Structure formats: structure tokens, C-alpha cells
Queue: 2 jobs
Job 1
Amino acid sequence: MYNKITQTDIDALRALLTDPERVFSGGDIAEEYSHDELASTKVMPDVVCKCMSAAEVSAVMKYANEHKIPVTPRGAGTGLVGAAVPVNAGIVIDVSGMDKILELDPDNMTVTVEPGVLLMTLGAYCTENGFFYPPDPGEKTATIGGNISTNAGGMRAVKYGVTRDYVRGLEVVLPNGDIINVGGKVVKNSSGYDLKDLFIGSEGTLGIITKAVLRIIMQPKFDISLLVPFPSLSDAINAVPAIVRSDSQPTAVEFMQGQVISDAEDYLGCRFPSSSNSAYLLLKFDSMSREELDRQYKSAAELCLSLGAEDVYLLDTEERNESVWKPRGAFLEAIKNSTTEMDEVDVVVPRDSINKMVSDLMEISKTSGARIKYFGHAGDGNLHIYILRDELGEAEWHKACEDAMELMYTEAFKLGGQVSGEHGIGLVKRPYLFQSLSPEVLGLMRGIKAAFDPNNILNPGKVCQ
Amino acid sequence: MNILVCIKQVPASNKVEVDPVTGVMKRDGAASKMNPYDLFALESAFRVREKLGGKVTVLTMGPNQAAGVIREAYAMGADEGYVLSDRKFAGADVLATAYTISQGIKKIGTFDIIFCGKQTTDGDTAQVGPEVSERLNLPSIANVFEIDDVEAGSITVKMDMGDSIQTAKIKFPCLICVDKDIYTPRLPSYKRAKATAEQEVTILSFQDFEDQDEKHYGLSGSPTQVKKVFPPAGRADAERLTGSSGELTARLYDKLKELKFI
């Protein structure tokens, strides 16, 4: 159904880019293009085009569309669900080189960027200029294009929302090579179907983002975090809804288990400032004024104590923040380091159902025979659950992993949850998406895909396909 | 066990503005915090108290608002706190500071161990601790990165000597300057901060001290005269010497001789 790439195609693609050296084929393609961060599926593309402009992306797309060659867009390759894996080989369009911040508009409070700008670069740029880009996914070396494509969330979602809430406009190259603009610098927009919101979270299946206008806000001047020990994880999680609906407005509400903290201590070779407790909530607050911040955190501290917290520790300096947030940031790596291989689940459930989900995990671990570790964004119901292989044999591991996933998603759907809170569906989570959505909803999604990409050449075999 | 910890209030950020005319650090209005090195001294004191029981007293020198770090130490678990504060102490260099602190300690009482942080993040001299011990005629030990053992009457510690590690056992009373990361400092507790909100912080001033000679304090008691403070100009022609301390000494001596500095 797709055409195999020939030398003629490679030569033609070389002629389309201003520098033919940016087209790689065969043995010249770096191994990393075959997989993403999780690396569970590896397929090498036939050609990699490192595009540096929307015009180049457009030219390659147009050629691919006319010649029925599949195209997979790629940013920094930090995805966790295989969305950037070229499962049908063909062309990979790498936009990581399009990494310029094009404009800061202080009056409209927007920043316009190319898709390859890294999250950490954007964050630092905004801070330097007194502004703040709130979305805060853990992977700071991801590109903004990738963040938009997965509608990435992060820890600040409780107060500030997710990537979608900060995208004002997009320039997108369609599968046929047309370049379109959707949205803009406007704050409000009720002008027809919101195509911008369709592209956000579409994981590179509807178009390739070549420019984004992002909303920014003023940088909060003061912040403080609280580390709150509870007698048990369920006590900690039970306190969350009351904290979120209180007037203290936390920016982040994370839960942490003593055991995962120990893993992070071993991994980083440093000790956590408090380790005698079995479970903690980690809360963060920010504000424009010192007085308001003090009011917020004191109100939250009193609330936590009334809900059974054993104490409330203050992280009020850079050093104290680092002593807790650094291990928190290393959880994923620490868990990875504690086993031989792992698979992840990024399920999201309603906030009041986290405890039920978490208590089921212990049972699921026993039933499936796989060790399970988890941590998560308690404030928004998004759990990061890791199924660990340890010393399991190949067949045993696959069975245990499959069983555990099946049980987890079934339980999550029963609780009104969704497959993914922020990592996306990509390649590997499709079976669970198919299970969770009604045939009518899936049919609409496939219809939308067909309307944008009638030849099905852009990132085929992903999300709803 | 009677333990004293010397602590200091320093600017919260290292991006402190310097007055371009006077060369003096602009401290007014800038947020402050406890010197990070002192957190390690405090934690060491708490660990000794956990093992042998007793009391942890904290002491700072500065304007009245320095009481903030005493309150912070209370929130971490300190039992009693003092601020040495007087206009006559202003402008003190390391020597006058160490002398003032030693006078304050004499007034407060006697201690089995005095813990200090290695240095402060605003002065970075690492001299005040050892100078206090000299003024109090106590044995002192610096660069301590591990406490091996503590028992009634003595403490055994490991010192980082740069290219070697020395283990020493010292009898009480003594003064110990601890290195960064000896222990992860505990966090201030909101519950404890509330419980100690009304607890007294004792202010001691010049008139409380045994030595009533003003010339020993503040600017007049300081042999160091600061003429000008300025950011150093970047030097591209720097030569970097590497090697063991023995080799470096010899090479530095040769170099200085060659340049006719000595």
C-alpha cells in the first residue's frame, strides 16, 4: 500500500532541502531514529530529513503524499509510547533543528517559537524576561512541538492547567504539504471548529507543527513547598481533594511513598531530609506577594494537620527545595535503575478515585507476578505506574506485563479514568484506547484522520488506527 | 550534654547587588536565610543530642532581625537562642567578630561542644570558627565530614585534609567546624515553629559583656581595613598549576621567585 523508497526518491528529497547534507539514508541514519525514550519497539526509517523551515517540511510532505511514502515526524525523541517510531519505515522528518524563539510579545503576552525549542530553553527564556510558561512536564529536554503533540501536563497542572491551555496559535504543515495557520494571538476565539485544539494531542497524525504561539503569564515572585508526612499513603491521598478545593491554591500536589524515596536516595547517593515516614504529600505554592504566599501555605499546613498529617516541613530556601525536589525529579530514573526492564502506565483517574486505584495496584502486582512501583500527581489524578521485569524470563515477563496492564486499565476505566494523562497513546497504548472508547467515538476519530490525511501517509498506525 | 551552635543570617540569593559607590553589599530589603553551612552544624548538634541527651543552644550575631534565624533553629529543634546585637559590633572583620562571639559565649555559659559551619556563603573566610576557639582557649578541629563516635567526654571525627583523611578523638570542651554534606539537614517543622512562636530569643549587647573596652569590637577592633570592593576583572592569561600539595608548593615557590615576588 505504501511505496518503497528508491534512490530516485532520496535524490529528489535531497533536492528539496536547501542543504542536501541534511538528508540521511541507509547506514548513515543514526540508530536513535528507530525508537523513542522507552525503546520497546524499534524500526529504522529509510530516510531522515532534518528540516529547517516550514517550507522544507511542506516540500517533503508534498513529495511523500504524491509518492505514497509514510512520514513520521520527530522532535527530541523523548516520548514514552512509540509515537515517533517509524513503524512503516519511509521518511522521518526531524524538526529538532527548528529551535529558534522567534518573538516575545509583551503586550499580547505570547511567545512565538519553532517546534524544536526545548522546554528548558523556553522556561529559562521566559524567566529571564520576567515571564512564566507554566506547563512543567518532567522531561525538560523534550521539544515544545512534542509537548503540544502529546498535550503534555506536568506537576503544575493543578493550578495552571496543561499545554493545551497555553497554545494560542499554530502553523501546521498538512499531509498534502499545505501550510495553514490556526488560532493566533487572540485571547478569545469562537470562529468555527477549533482545529488548533485538534492538532494539540494528535501526536503528529494530523499535521506537523512548524510554529507555535504560546500564551505566557507574569512570573510569580515567591514560592514555597511543603513536605507533609502522613501515617499512610491512603491518609495522604485522602487529604488531596480538600487541599485542592481549599483557598490555598497549590500549584503542585504530588504523592510519594517511602520506598520510592529510598530508591531515589540510592540512585542519587544522597539522603532525603526526612525518611522515617511511609508516605508524603509534596505541595507547592507560588504568588506575586510574600504575604499572600504566607497565607496560602499556612492555610494549607493547618488543613493538612487537621486531616491527619504528622507534621508539615517547610522548603523555604533553594537548598531545602533541592533536597526534596531533586530526588522527586529522579524517581523515574531511580526506578529504571532498580530493575532490568520496565513498562509504564500513565493512567489518569478522577481525583477521588486515586486511593482505590493505588490500593488495587498491590493486588495487581500479586496476581500478575510483576513488581510494581508508582508515584504520581495526586492533585490531578495522574498516576505513573511502572511494571518491573527484574529477573523474570522473556515469556514470563511479557505475560506478567500484559496481565498487569490489562488489570490496571480495566480498573481505571471502571473508575471513570482514561488511558493516558500526559504521555499519549502513540503506538503501544492503542489496544487500551480501543477498549476504553466507544465505537462511535473511535469512528469519529478515524474520520477526522481520514479528512486530514486521505492517503494515510502521516504517522500511520498510531493513536486511533 | 551542653551543645552550642554558631549560626549566621546571610542573603537568600547569591545574586546580591553591590553598591557601586561604596562597594558594600546591599542587604536592606533583600531576603535572607540561615547560612547553608550552619544547617550542617545544627544537624550535627541534633544528632549528638539524640545520642547523649542534653540541650542545643544557638547563637548568632547581627542586627535584631537576625532573631529570624534563631526562630528557624527553634523550628528545626534548637532549645535556646541568643542574638549578639549592638551598634558597637558593626563593621567587624573576622577577628573582631570572633572576639565578640567569644565574649557572648562566656556570658551564656560553658559548653561541651561548639559546632560551627565551615564558612558562610557571604564571607567565605572559614576563619571565625577556629578564631573563636582560640579566644576561648579551646581545642578546635575543622573540615570535619564525619562523626565516628561520640561518648561522654569525647568525640571522634574524620577531617578532610585535602589529600588525606585524619581521624581525631578530642576531649570536651572543644569546637568543631563541620563540612558541607556531613548529614542532610532536617527541615524546619511548621508544628514546631508554631509551638515555639512565643519562646524567648535573648538579645545580648555590649553592656552584657565582660570586656568593656569598645576598641575590641566592631570597626575599631578590626585590623582589616576594606578599601574597595569590586568584581574581579576576568584574566585570560591565568596559568593553572596542578599536582599534589607538595608539588604545588614547590612549583608555586619557583614561580613566585621567578616573577620576583619573593
Note: The mean pLDDT of chain B is 91.
Job 2
Amino acid sequence: MTTVTATSPAIADTAMEQPSSLTLFLRYLNRNRGLAVGVVILIGLVLFTVIGLITINPKHAYPLSVATKQPPSLKYPFGTDFFGRNLMAAMVVGMWQTAVIGVVAGGLGTLIGVVLGFTSAYFGGWIDSTIRTICQILTPIPVLLIQVVVAGSLDKRDVTILTMALIVVMLAWMGPTLVIRAQVLTMKERQFVSVAKLSGVGDIAIIFKEILPNLLPFIAAAFVGQVFSAVFASFYLAVLGLGPLREPLLGNIIWAAQLQGAFFNGWWWWPIAPSIGMILILASLALINMGLDELANPRVRKTE
Amino acid sequence: MNFKLIAKRLSFLVLVIWAASTIVFFVPRLSPRNALRERFAELARSGGFAPGDIEKLITNMNQQFGLDKPLLEQYWTYLGNIIRMDFGYSLNRYPATVTDIISQALPWTFFLLLFTTILSFIIGNLLGAISAWPKSPRWLRGIATPFVLLTGVPPVIMGVLLLFFIGFRLKLLPLGGPYSIGIVPNWSWDFAVDVLRHQMLPALALVLGSVGGWVLSMRGMGVTIQGEDYVNFAEHKGLTGGRIFRDYYLRNTLLPQVTGLALALGTLVTSALVVEQLFGLPGLGQVLNNAIRSNDFPVIYGIVLFITIAIAVLMAVLEFIYPLLDPRVRNQ
């Protein structure tokens, strides 16, 4: 990723001092401010969740555990809700569950996308046209609505954090598939692949040793993008009341607050905390995604 | 536009609708839940049924709706019904059909969406173009920045924040509902104003939530056009800045944005559904939410299919309009 590696070692040893990789990384973050801000917010959220999980009793994130309808105070920084949940504890547990959904769904979606994209682009022919057509047909269908059908068909008791992630991933692999496919298609024509082919390297070895390492930045960007859309989709499902209703997912808290008429009754703090939490999560993911895009796509990459 | 292209687009449209209907048909049938049985179990709990009665009722209902026939036969009847836009009956509000329920709720959603989409499309693209245009004044460029920062905020959350600041703290606008409690809908001026006041916050939430996206994509496009030969040529010809902006700049950047609009339709509709639900407007979002809560499966599936078909058709329409806007495609 660095431009310095191009200089020959002899010169580097004598005339120039090689900056350490940490310095280079920090310098890159300085150029790519969006990525830096995104990473900082994400670290803050992770710290909030980890410290919260250690210090707070997670039982208080569930109904009937603390006094009801308390406005924010020193004891309850985010207040408590109508059902007697400490919203601070609910936020901590909700953040953790959101992270689980995001990482599981994002990881699975990216994995499916990478496998399908590779197969499609590398082997071409009817395999490629089948996968491409399926992606194209499924793309115009609003994913959330199909997720509503799937989530609605499940027994309410079966809806857990994990099934939520699976529902979200079910229709979210098309994006990464098309992105990876396009990248493999261009990479396939590059000279280093032709050289490898001519030297008699097998298909599998070319995929894993030649193409995959060069694709890593794209895969990372696709993964963050997938985590973003998984968090977003699960949030919408939860706001519609299709989430695991017992769990304090951020969307569930907003759904419950709206259902009980929180603003009408003056319990304004109830939906505010999860809203701000969600804004921070989505903003950090979006910033990291844009920053990684810049890293992956040298054409838009800023030079020093 | 040639015939072959039209045929290709139309067959794609049919494929999309078929795929969506098939998913909506098979997914619920794969699940262990039985809508009728759950519904009657609920009724039975509220009293007055002998256990045998329920079984008889369910067999009767299954016969009446053809649910005892082989799956493939049901599938064919179902596809035929979809073509006729017949989504069956609501379990909760029988004998109202799903189509009745949708057409009652549709105007709310339709006008909210139409208004907010057009407004955010125009504002977003103008702001984006202005902020990428090198000759626009500095203060005008700065206006776009706050909207870009709002891009990451989903419209629902925007709705919560607006409710808190404008509705709850400042008490400027109502906190939800289609119109004030206690007013009987009528054709008076006062009632119209009341309804509009209730529509302001949801509309604002949707507009603020989507303007930033248009600004971003328009700005990206505007920057690439700056170096183009025809813009330089127009400048050297001595055309006025306004003329270049309108005829060379907007004209060329707006075209891809129309495609973007087609692609964004799905997101826009789902956002509107969730926002409506948040503000308690009686549109499709609330109908969907009520149906989810009361396990009214035909209504859930009907709304999902209806919206999918509507979006697919709209996308096809936008694609047909495209050649009218772009002479390069028209002459191909």
C-alpha cells in the first residue's frame, strides 16, 4: 500500500530513513480524514459496549428490573422506560446485539458474495450468466419487504438475534457478488495472471495466490458495506416490530417507545438514546466504508 | 427506441414480478406457522368455541380458499390472481379484500412519497450541482455541507429527532396522527390545514433523510464534467455562466441521476413505510404494521407484493422515459 517500497533498498539504507509502518499508517489516516473519524467513533462505541458489559448488570436491560419511567439522572444516565428497563443497560446490550447481527450478517454476506463473484467471473460462460441474471432479477425487489415476509412467517419465539442476522443476509449477497465479479473480471486480464497461467499454475492456485491478495481492499470495503446494510436492515425490521421483541435492540426500543406514545406522554428520553446510538453506528460505518473505498480505488486515492 | 429493447425490458419486468410473487408464495408455506389456525386459536381464547368446531371451521375455510389442493395447483391459481391484482381477503377485517385495504391507505403514502421524492430530488441535485460548480459563490457552496452530514441518518431517526425538537420541545407541530383528535374529516379549509400540519414533520424527515444522497452523487458527477472538452469549448465561445450551468452542466449530470432515482425507489418506499408508522399516519406503513401485529398474513403479503410490483413498473417506466431525455440513447 505504500509508495516508499518502490525505492531500491540500497538507497533506502543510506540516504533515507524508512518511516515506521505506524508512522505511515498515521500519515495515511491524516490524509484520509473520513476513515480516521469513522475509526475513532467505532472505537468509542466498542469501548462503551465493552466497559458497559463489564460494569452494568445486563439483567437491567430487560423489563421489570428497575423503577419505571425515570428521566435521565446520575443513577440512570439515559433514564428508564415504561417497562422498567434501565436504558443505559439496554443501550449496552443493544449495541452488543447490533454488533453481533452486523458482523455475522456482514461476514456471511461478504463470504457468499466473494465465492459467487469469483465463480461467476473466473469461470464465465453459463455459470456467469445464471448468477448475473439472478442478481439482476433480485436487485429491484425491495429487500426489506421480503425480509418482512420471512420474519413474519417465523414463529415469534423463533426470532432471535441469530435468526435476525440470517434473515438479513438472505437477500443481501447480491451487492458484493456483483462488485467482486467486476473486480475479478478486470484482474483476470492483467498480465500477472496471464504469466501465472502460462507458467502452468492451476486455477485454484491462481485464485488464492494471485487474485485474492489483490482483492483484499475491495473485500474489506464490501464487508464494511455489508455490515452497514445489515445493521440498517435489522434496525428497520425492529422498528416495524419484527425483531426479537424481548431483546433491547435499538430498533426495538424505538418501536416500543412509539407504541406507548412516549412523546405524547412526555417520556422524551426513551426514543432519544437509541436514536443517537444508531446515528453514531451508521455514521462510523459509512465513514469507514467511504475511507476504505478510497484506499481500495487508487484513482480516487489522495496523494500526499 | 426499437422493438427488441422494449420486449427485453418488459420480459425483465415480468421476471422480477414473477420472482417476487414466487418468494412471497413459498416462504410462508415453508414455515411451520399456520395463519388460519393461529387466527382461530385467538378467537377460541376469547371464548365460545367447542374444540371440534375449530377443526371443522378450518377444514371449511381450507376448502373455500382452495388451501387443500396440491401446492402446484394453488401456485397456478395464485399467479393468476396476482395478474388480476387480487390478493385475497383480510383475515382481520373480512370481508374486506386486501386490495380494498391497500386502496384505502394508498393515497396517504402515495402523496407523501411523491411530494418528498420530488422535493428532495430537486433540492439535492441543485445543491449538489451548485457545490461542484467552480464559479458559484462560497456561501452558496457551504449550504450543501450540512445536508451531506445528514446522509448517514436514516429518515426514521430523523423523524424521532424532529419529533423531539419541533414537536415536543417547541410544540410547533403535532406529535403524530393523521389529523387532530376529535376532528371529523370534512372538506373544509381548516381540516385541510390540520392535515397538512400533521404531514409536515414526516415529510421533513423524509426530505432531510434523502437530500444528502442526491447532493453527494450530483457533486461527484459535477466534478467529473468540469474538465470535459465541451465545457471548455462553451467557455471559450463566451457563453454566460448561467447558460453553461443550465445547458451543459445540469443537462449532462441530471441524466445519470434519473437512473439513480429508479434505483433508489425501493429504499425511498421502505423509508416512507417506516416513517409513516412512526408518525401514526394511516398509510401503507401503518396497515403493514397492524397486519404484522395481528398476524393478518394476506394483508402483509398483499402489501409486499403490491409495492414490489409498483416499484418494478415505475423502474421500467423511468427506463422508457430515459431515451426521451437522452438523445444519445434515442439515436442508437
Note: Chain B is about 75% helix and 0% strand.
